[in-house]
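We were asked to recover a plausible sequence for a given structure. The inputs and outputs are reproduced exactly as logged, with field labels preserved.

PROBLEM: sequence recovery
POSITIONS: 464
GIVEN STRUCTURE:
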């Protein structure tokens, strides 16, 4: 197979596994009532299955870079697909909350190894001029899966059985494993001791940080407890940073954060991804709870967001080549914030065609911003630091995905407190204020991009 075609095929394979991993994070949300009935419990008790999967992903992602170097990326990628697939079978075979949660943790472990190692292989083999194309392929699952997950999960649970949400991963996993064995090459293994100190500190830090944000958005958790958990997570992450900088062979290095083009996607980019990730959570709730739409009608409206994502894909490279990264990230970033502000102006009387047009526009800008941020991240990263860069990027991306839902819920909680509607079901006005808060977050993210030089990442676009 021609080397270019093989690289594209590998990028498509990694994107497909990324889609599986992201879809499994959201597809069960609308299926929780059906699963709860079979388990003889209430749906709220199954939220631990969602959280356990996301936390396992975040905690174990830092191990992926070390494992790829120690045992070979091809081998680790194949084992990760196998673990993820078998864990999906265990999820379908679960008969209670405990066994289901354990299977979800195992599934998160497989996903944590699968996507970062796959992305690392793509970045190592892709020449700088082709990174734009590769990242465009790797970006779509993060945009598409959170939107398709809830309606797909609801449809499967209604017309088939919730078990098929996980059973469908079996043929997909088998096909992905076969493709990996055919397409990917063996890499030399490097003997390196495992950094247990870095793993424990970073794992506890990420876990507490994610748990604290989620707890802060829940009315049934005392504010003092959620703030204490969040503060503990931040403190442990700070200790982890000091430890990793001083360790002789750290679990993952922080050197890429000194590169300006990587740092902009780590700091400002995290705010953007969190803001964008809140939309698939806030919009259907506003349509159903605030406007009284049916679940089907709300799901159909979200497809316009999905359509905008897809429509922008063929144009992202051309736009970045014409305007450059800095102009795109600033100008398009303003459009992203404007899209959130426009959502805050929607009412139950807003014409349907106007809502569809707004969601399509928001999908266009989301896709453009995601691709620009994800591409410039690796513009100036040298090959020796690529492992650390992909590990850091994967950790941040996964945290941002979980934070998008938690921050969206927190924004509604803050709006209810300001409106004095706490303890009651959120009203349309609460969702409008929540969207204003998310728009402010998107604007804040622009500050990072303002400090980029005009020619930032230009060699990715020109090949020079």
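RECOVERED SEQUENCE:
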């Amino acid at each position: 197979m021609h080397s270019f075609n093989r690289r594209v095929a590998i990028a498509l394979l990694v994107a497909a596994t990324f889609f599986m991993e992201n879809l499994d994070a959201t597809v069960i949300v609308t299926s929780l009532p059906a699963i709860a009935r079979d388990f003889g419990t209430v749906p709220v008790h199954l939220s631990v299955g969602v959280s356990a999967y996301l936390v396992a992903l975040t905690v174990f992602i830092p191990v992926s870079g070390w494992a790829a170097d120690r045992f070979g990326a091809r081998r680790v990628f194949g084992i990760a697909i196998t673990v993820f697939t078998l864990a999906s079978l265990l999820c379908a075979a679960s008969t209670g909350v405990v066994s289901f949660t354990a299977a979800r943790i195992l599934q998160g472990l497989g996903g944590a190894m699968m996507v970062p190692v796959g992305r690392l292989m793509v970045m190592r083999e892709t020449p700088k001029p082709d990174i734009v194309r590769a990242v465009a392929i790797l970006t779509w699952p993060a945009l598409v899966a959170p939107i398709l997950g809830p309606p797909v999960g609801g449809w499967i649970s209604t017309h088939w059985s919730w078990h098929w949400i996980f059973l469908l991963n079996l043929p997909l996993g088998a096909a992905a494993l076969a493709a990996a064995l055919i397409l990917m090459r063996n890499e030399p293994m490097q003997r390196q001791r495992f950094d247990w100190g870095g793993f424990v500190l970073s794992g506890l830090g990420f876990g507490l940080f994610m748990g604290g944000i989620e707890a802060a958005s829940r009315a049934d958790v005392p504010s003092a407890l959620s703030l204490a958990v969040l503060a503990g997570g931040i403190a442990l992450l700070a200790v982890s940073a000091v430890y990793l900088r001083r360790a002789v062979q750290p679990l993952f290095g922080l050197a890429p954060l000194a590169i300006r083009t990587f740092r902009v996607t780590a700091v400002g980019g995290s705010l953007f991804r969190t803001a964008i990730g809140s939309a698939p959570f806030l919009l259907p709730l506003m349509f159903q709870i605030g406007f009284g739409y049916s679940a089907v009608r709300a799901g159909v409206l979200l497809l316009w967001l999905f359509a905008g994502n897809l429509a922008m894909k063929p144009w992202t490279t051309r736009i970045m080549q014409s305007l450059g990264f800095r102009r795109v990230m600033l100008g398009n970033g303003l459009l992203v914030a404007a899209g959130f502000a426009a959502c805050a102006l929607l009412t139950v009387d807003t014409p349907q065609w106007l809502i569809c047009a707004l969601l399509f526009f928001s999908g266009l800008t989301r896709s453009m911003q995601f691709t620009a941020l994800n591409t410039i991240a690796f513009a100036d990263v040298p090959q020796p630091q690529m492992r650390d860069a992909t590990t850091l990027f994967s950790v941040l991306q996964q945290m941002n995905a979980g934070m998008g839902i938690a921050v969206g819920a927190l924004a509604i909680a803050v709006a209810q407190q300001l409106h004095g509607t706490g303890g009651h079901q959120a009203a349309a006005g609460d969702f409008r204020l929540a969207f204003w808060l998310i728009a402010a977050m998107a604007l804040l993210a622009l500050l990072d991009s303002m400090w980029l030089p005009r020619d930032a990442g230009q060699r990715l676009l020109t090949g020079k």
